[in-house]
Design brief:
Largest sheet: none
Number of helices: 20
Order of helices and strands: HHHHHHHHHHHHHHHHHHHH
Length: 395
């Protein structure tokens, strides 16, 4: 209480009065600016500058405006000088609302050719110094050919030369079905095992499943060079290798089924040197072809519909594996789809599980897989056809 009462007495005694602080320079400048802005002449000048900014006229200061009206400036110059860029931007910012960040930073999505041309002209003629020049336009080459690529004269001449070489090798006669293995590889760039299907495509005579008996029935018909070139140049020359193979395999249908591969596999079994030992056991030739076809559809037909599409064939490595089987004498080196050792393991394991040997596995058969490694729930899930649908046609 005493300290509280003594403080006023000390202040009221002979102590010096506190000094008044001088306002800061910024406060003084703000005061002078507000005073200048309140003057009628200043308001008229600001409104005139805003009108000039809206109309796109040059912004002139008060001395320049007076000199322009009187015909000469105080320094003897002619026309008045414009305001500095900073002053012009400040006045424009007062006249126009600010753009949104998206409008300030995002370029136009797809400007018209006229707008791109006018932008380049303004940047070259009156653009700000140091501005980035627009990048030169780059033409993107065509990468999608829905009807196939256009056949050039050089490609057409090369195809005819290859056809003449093929016919020169057989003499005066035409090409039989057995000769179409070379035609498929040398003229069409396809695996030679597609030869029977190529013969069927050119002649229209069906080769069925490509069995030896059906190939003997088709052996009496031959193809001359004019018919071969007409078919190749009209239907296949503009297609890529996957589209050519798909055109042969689908056999007039919109998709490829399991049975369409039988002529290919039968020709492979009959001509490949690594499968000659199967010639004495036709039953195992059939089992090998069936297993390879199922391996092909398991790896290529990702949609699991049993109907292979051109897109699925094009994204697979099937044609590469078939070309490797063409060049490799040991079929077991072609581990993709065609290895006989892989077929042997699959077939023996299936035979061990199939107790009644009807080539169908029931629940009890599958339970024995891996020394009863699968649980009942896993087997039930498999027979519910959740992972893959069954194609045997039996419940």
């Amino acid at each position: 209480a005493g300290a509280a009462g003594g403080a006023p007495g000390a202040a009221g005694g002979g102590a010096d009065a506190p000094k008044v602080r001088t306002p800061s320079s910024k406060m003084k400048l703000d005061e002078l600016f507000l005073h200048w802005l309140s003057l009628p002449d200043s308001q008229a000048l600001v409104m005139k500058l805003l009108d000039d900014a809206r109309e796109g006229r040059p912004l002139l200061g008060p001395e320049s405006r007076g000199a322009a009206a009187g015909g000469a400036s105080p320094s003897g110059g002619g026309a008045g000088s414009p305001l500095s860029p900073t002053s012009a931007q400040a006045l424009l910012s007062l006249a126009m609302p600010p753009l949104s960040p998206a409008k300030c930073t995002s370029p136009p999505r797809s400007p018209s050719p006229h707008r791109r041309h006018s932008g380049r002209a303004s940047a070259g003629a009156g653009g700000a110094p140091g501005a980035r020049a627009p990048a030169p336009e780059q033409e993107i080459p065509q990468f999608y050919f829905p009807g196939g690529r256009k056949v050039t004269d050089e490609q057409r001449a090369e195809g005819r030369e290859r056809a003449r070489a093929l016919f020169a090798a057989v003499g005066d006669g035409g090409l039989a079905v057995a000769d179409f293995a070379r035609v498929a590889r040398e003229l069409c760039g396809l695996p030679s095992f597609l030869g029977p299907l190529l013969f069927e495509y050119v002649t229209g005579k069906s080769v069925g499943d490509g069995s030896p008996q059906q190939l003997r029935d088709a052996a009496g018909q031959t193809v001359d060079m004019r018919a071969l070139l007409d078919c190749f140049e009209a239907k296949m020359a503009h297609l890529d290798v996957h589209a050519r193979a798909f055109e042969l395999l689908r056999r007039g249908k919109p998709h490829v089924c399991n049975q369409d591969f039988l002529p290919v596999l039968n020709d492979l079994v009959a001509r490949h040197p690594g499968l000659e030992f199967l010639s004495e056991t036709p039953e195992f030739q059939e089992r090998y072809a069936e297993t390879v076809i199922h391996r092909i559809f398991y790896g290529v037909n990702r949609s699991d519909t049993g109907k292979m599409t051109l897109r699925e064939l094009g994204k697979s490595d099937l044609l590469e594996a078939m070309a490797m089987a063409d060049d490799e004498e040991d079929i077991n080196r072609v581990v993709k789809y065609f290895s006989y050792e892989h077929f042997y393991v699959i077939y023996c394991r299936f035979w061990e599980l199939d107790q009644d040997h009807d080539f169908l596995l029931d629940r009890e058969d599958l339970m024995r897989y891996g020394n009863h490694a699968l649980t009942y729930r896993i087997v039930d899930r498999i027979f519910a056809e959740a992972p893959r649908r069954f194609v045997s046609g039996h419940p």
